[in-house]
Amino acid sequence: MLKNSQQLSNSYNEHGYFVIRNYFDEAQIASLREVVLKFHELWKADNEEFYQEEAFNSSLITGSEYLLSNDRKILFNFISSPKIMDVVDAVIPENPAFMNTQLFFNPVNPQQKDFWHRDCQYDYDIEDQMKVILETQVLHLRVPLFDELGMEIIPGTHKRWDNEEEYNVRQEVNGKVSSDSISGGKPIALAAGDLLVFSADMIHRGLYGLDRLALDILIFDSSADYVDYVDDDCLPTQSMLNNIADPRLFMNTLHLKSMQCS
Asked: pLDDT, tens digit, for every residue of 50-76?
């Protein structure tokens, strides 16, 4: 267990994020980077037009479309490793479940600007967004594979609605656009080996630049209704599960899926 797990929990509850510096050693990052780069190169080739024109992230990294079984096992074992699970348990102590993985990179177009958002704004109208940020919990665990400019976040917005400035920028109203600066923004530069944990529904933006390539692991509270977001192909097979030391994240997701079907 993390010595300061209560401290991390308190920090997350109050601010909506925390950073652990130099959390992963060079060997862990090198192994992860090798697999992720395989995925990234194949994904780029398969999505060339989208990548060239507007892409800044991809998803379903643990699926079978671009990676063979051995590489997927490396990812699953990293996601369920003690270092990841200790952090997850500190924030979601009861039945955390695996949702997805995403990969964040720089857009090809240098004119493309980073933008403020809450993840929930892409699935809910304003009224429901107000409810979601108070009722559900989705974690991003960001693992930068190279040194990068990182993220800019608005601390505390995982538990409160936007103020006027934040709303205008995020919603692009009253003459504002989503790439405008916000006075409460806190930039967090990240280095390979760091871990940033933040609420998906707080106001945040990724910062483009440097060699940005970050793997995000998305985890949700089983009491939230998010199992529909999980792609079956991104879960480990039964034989893979048998070789994962702590498969709880995946088992909880599979349980939710079975409940849905029954």
From this structure: 999 999 999 999 999 999 999 999 999
Instruction: Write the CB contacts of 138 (distance below 8 Å, at least 6 apart in sequence).
Output: 99, 119, 199, 200, 201, 218, 219, 220, 221, 224, 226
Task: For the chain, list the domains and their CATH numbers.
Answer: 5-261 (2.60.120.620)
Q: How far apart are the first and last CA of the chain?
A: 36
Q: Are 101 and 253 in contact (CB under 8 A)?
A: no
Identity at 202, one-letter amino acid code: M
Strand bridging mode 57-59 / 204-206: unpaired
State both tokens at 208. 């483009």
88/63 Cα distance (integer angstroms): 22
**Residue 25: which of 148, 194, 193 has the closest Cα?**
193
List pLDDT tens digits, range 76-123: 999 999 999 999 999 999 999 999 999 999 999 988 999 999 999 998
State CA 109 to chain mean position distance. Answer: 23
Fill in the DSSP letter of residue 35.
H
pTM of the model: 0.95
What whole-number distance in Å separates Cα of residue 221 and Cα of residue 236? 19
As a whole number of angstroms, the distance between CA 204 and CA 193 comes to: 21
At CA 66, angle to CA 192 and CA 87, rounded to 5? 40
